[in-house]
Amino acid sequence: MAFIDYYKLLGIETSATDEDIKKAYRKLARKFHPDLNPNDKEAHVKFQQINEANEVLSDPEKRKKYDQYGKDWQHGEEFEKARQAQGSGFRAGAGSNSGAFGEDDFSDFFGSMFGSAGGGARSRQAKFRGEDYNAELHLNLKDASQTHQQTLTVNGKNIRITIPAGIENGQVIKLKGHAGPGVNGGPNGDLYITFQIADDLKFKRAGNDIYTTTELDLYTAVLGGEITIDTLNGKVKLKVKPETQNGTKTRLKDKGFPVYKKEGQYGDLYVTYSITIPTGLTEREKELFTELSKLSS
Question: What's the pLDDT at 127?
Fold first, then answer.
């Protein structure tokens, strides 16, 4: 019965660290993943073996048993009991002893105890969890401010997800069981989605508050009045006090970004006024400004 060398399979030394094992597994799993080799049966078998090797070598207890018993590590305890029952003459690898077991006999012993490759406990294939996937989902600021649905395609299947209002830039959510398929009936991997929210030309987000700048004509700034401004959820009217100065900031309560997963809660909208100076004045308008300047002085 052929011995499967997990270390050789992963391309690492027997002295490999946990990090070495993890790096080797990830590299090979990507290379032989069934999704990337849909019609390659050899790649599928290789992927199963790689998962099996990783499962064993990444677990300290399993690795210890594997180093001692090889591919029959799962039945190490049974072997120890049988060896004790047979006495000191039953020693794996003893070599010179007439009752010793060599490598082939060692495997044959387990075959007789637990069944041949065609049946029994040894014929059961291990179940392995599928690979996790990572993806980015790009949104604009307005989309992120509204609860809405989007459809993603993963492994040829459409997945409809609901994106809650108030999602943060860089926030990650997990969709359990929506990634790589499991092997031999094992569970699917998980899909991790990282949200990337693009900068907006008009609005700047800081937490749940929104900042914007709006132009204010000179006459309204001096005399006061009412203007209409844009928000993330439409237009609102805003009263301007007389003698408003350039750079003046005003707050609109609850007109900012929605608070994530807290229905009815919002940040505030901060509006900064940028006063515009009129251009293209007529002669009459210039005269009036001249008279006004004399009155002011």
Answer: 81
